[in-house]
Amino acid sequence: MDIDLHIFEDDQELTEICKKYWGISEDDAFIFEMSEISFAHNISTYEIITLVKKYSIAYSRHIKCSSCNKPYYYNNRQDFSSQNNKQGWICPDCKKANEVSWMRQKKSQTRQRTTYQTL
Ligand SMILES: [Zn+2]
Predict the structure, then answer these.
(1) Residue 83: how many CA atoms within 13 Å on its side-chain side?
(2) From ligand 1's centre to the CA of 91, what distance in Å?
(3) Helices (H) and strands (E) in the chain, counts
(4) Residue 95 C-alpha to ligand 1 middle, in angstroms?
(5) Could you tell me the residue range of the domain that residue 56 belongs to?
(6) Rounded to the nearest whole angstrom, what is the distance from the C-alpha of residue 112 to the centroid of ligand 1?
(7) Does a structural domain hold residue 71?
(8) Could you say which of 44, 56, 70, 72 would form a disulfide bridge with 7 (CB–CB 3.0 to 4.6 Å)?
(9) 73-115 pLDDT per residue, tens
(10) 70 CA to middle of ligand 1, Å?
């Protein structure tokens, strides 16, 4: 199992919906069909996705940011099931930090070059 589920609300039904949405078996297959959850709780699949996104985060147990070790979190079931290679994933925070440091580096390089030329 590769999902570490965090639920932010204490509501029993909400917890159940999130758990069912992210519930996976030993071989990483989803246990409940969307239609089953929809039927059991009398809400649309669209509502399920909205609630789950709003009140829970499904972290990966294996995929971590290659820079700061923060765990990857799945956007939705498709994201979990997709075979996209997530190894070497970099979290949004680090990506931003990298961009800033890259820009700084570039700026200082340009500055160095200008200094050199004026010498
Ligand atoms: Zn990171």
Answers:
(1) 0
(2) 4
(3) 5, 3
(4) 7
(5) 3-88
(6) 30
(7) yes
(8) 56
(9) 999 999 998 867 787 899 999 999 989 998 898 888 877 776 6
(10) 6
Contact 60, 71 (CB under 8 A): yes
115: in domain:
no
Residue-wise pLDDT for 45-59, tens only, equals 999 999 999 999 999
Q: Is 24 helix (H, G, I), strand (E, B) or coil?
A: strand
Of residues 44, 51, 70, the one with CA closest to residue 11: 51
Distance 76 CA to ligand 1 centre (A): 20
What spacing in Å lies between the alpha carbon of 71 and ligand 1's midpoint?
8
Distance (Å, whole) CA 19 – CA 24: 9
pTM for the model: 0.78
Q: Count structural domains, the chain.
A: 1
In a domain, 101, yes or no: no
Spacing, Cα 55 to ligand 1 middle (Å)? 23
